[in-house]
Amino acid sequence: MAEKADLLSLGTHCSLKDCKRLDFLPFRCSHCKEIFCLDHRTPEGHQCRDVVTSDVHVPVCPICNQIIKKSKDEDINRQVEQHIISGCKTLVVGKPKKSNKCSLKTCRQHGLMPFVCPDCRKNHCIRHRHAEDHLCTALQVPIISCA
């Protein structure tokens, strides 16, 4: 009889008042931190009151295809309308800065990965990543004059 008591003490009961099912692999809600069974593990399954709903809509102008700054207090449609009325000039999210620009003056490439030359320590694009391709200062031989 002692073995049955040990087996029953392994699991945890579901926190939902109507369920209270003994579950051996319970789930903890990341919002309310209570323990639930498999059937009630989701916030919708136990009607979690601590869930914060987040709006994942990104307003985009249908004319210029630019992302529009979003305010929590104002309606998205109203903000898009204000942007269009301004001639697609206001409420625009700035363009992200391009990174990994090639250090060669004649090149305008921006690479996805940085290629840093171990000799001159400058960043280059994939085409100019080798020292010979970007005319690395480490390859230049000093001219010695014989006088």
From TrEMBL:
Signal peptide bounds: none
Recorded superkingdom: Eukaryota
The keyword Transcription regulation is assigned to this record: no
Domain AN1-type: 8-56, 96-144
InterPro entries according to UniProt: AN1-like_Znf, Znf-C2H2_ZFAND2A/B, Znf_AN1
Alphabetical keyword list: Metal-binding, Repeat, Zinc, Zinc-finger
Name this polypeptide is given: AN1-type domain-containing protein
